[in-house]
Fold this sequence. Notes:
By secondary structure, the protein is mostly helical. The protein has helices spanning 3-23, 31-44, 49-66, 68-74, 86-94, 98-127, 131-136, 138-152, 156-180, 191-198, 200-208, 212-216, 240-243, 246-261, 267-279, 285-315, 321-324, 328-331, 343-346, 349-373, 375-385, 388-407, 409-428, 432-451.
Amino acid sequence: MDFSLILQMVIAAVIAAVLYTVIGAAPGADETATIAPVILVLVLSGLHPVVILSFFMAAIVSCKLIDAVPVSIAGIPAGVMSTPMVEHAMVLKKFGLTDTSIRKIASGAIIGTLVSLPVSLFLAKALVPFATIIKQYGDLIFFIGAVLLALMSKKRWISLVSIVPFALLIQGLRHLYWGVGAVPKGTNVFISFFLGITIGPVILTLFELLNKDKRDNMKRFSKKYIQLKKVKESTKFPNPFKILTKKEAMYSALASLIGSVTFLLSPVGLTIFFGELFSSGTKEPVEKASLAVSCMEALAQATYISGTLIPLIALGIPLSPMALGPANPLFNAPPVYTLKNNMHHLLSTSDFVWATLIGVLIASTITYFVTVRYSQQICGFVFKRIPHEAMLGLFFSLVLLLAFMDAGWINVAGVLLIGIVAGVLYRLGVNYGVQFMILYSAPWIITKLAAI
Length: 452
């Protein structure tokens, strides 16, 4: 690996850290909707794989670190993964410990990173001998994964029932495109369908606004006022091991280890379960809330890193919720990456290690310091100057552009249809993990169904 490539990796990691330190502080900045489209554009632009991986690792680390700010200051989750922490962060805020909440959450993320990196690399190496066998049954595994994720979700029955109809819609659109000549027969239109699912709730909401009765019945709100309490600022670089107590550090490390090993399961479910489990034995409110937020953030960060690295290094197919979500373009971004030719096949083990280390270290250093030192300034700037709707509009337009590039104007309509159905399913309780598993297993499901 030459110096120029290392320099590109460093620059990419710095840009990602700065960019997602701002984006990640915005309320509702879901990681899949904000990271996946950008990574997809970088892949399609022809950027070197190690540079893209450095950018991605820096992005996810920064996103998870900075979500301490809106959660602690305003009680507003930055994304789905930070939602479980809101209740506990508000307990700390009630006691005037907003700065403590930010420090505990950010420090938990650092612990999660430190534990999950070596564990992920070790597990990836251990799984390599079994990779061929696992990939032979990839389609079946995706289907089983959809069923298991459906069974583990709160709305398990609607999730189970939706598997075949949603697969039929996806595969039916592909056959329609082949039949009318929109794309050559056998071409797998994937990326635009994936992004349609990602922003499905947004597409559904936009269509609802076209309904006058629905629009008239929507609640109207005045300007939202959020009070930011003045907190002490530290000029020194914060030490996570001094911010966390021994008990918090120990439980955060244990949660990170569990999150790394169980990378196939739902990150949100794991975060809620183990965060509440580890803090349940503590009765004092402040101590309990501090322990809960640090453990939850450590586990969430660990699932992000392990859920990306283990499938990417060992298998080359996205077999985790994280790999199916924000990290999906690293596995499958036709025509540049396919399941038979992606980063797994193009990069060596040392490439993965260097790209990951550079991305993670730079993002951890920049965003951790900024989170603890300038949390209020960032939160105030984002809340005042960056409308959430503007970011959603940007990503929505990017999805439509990529849909057109995939299969022309007919696919723009197809992606809107996918988005509407995905948005309805999401509101009914069918989570992203189930929908993405269906997207991957759709050809296998319909082939087997037709053979009955």
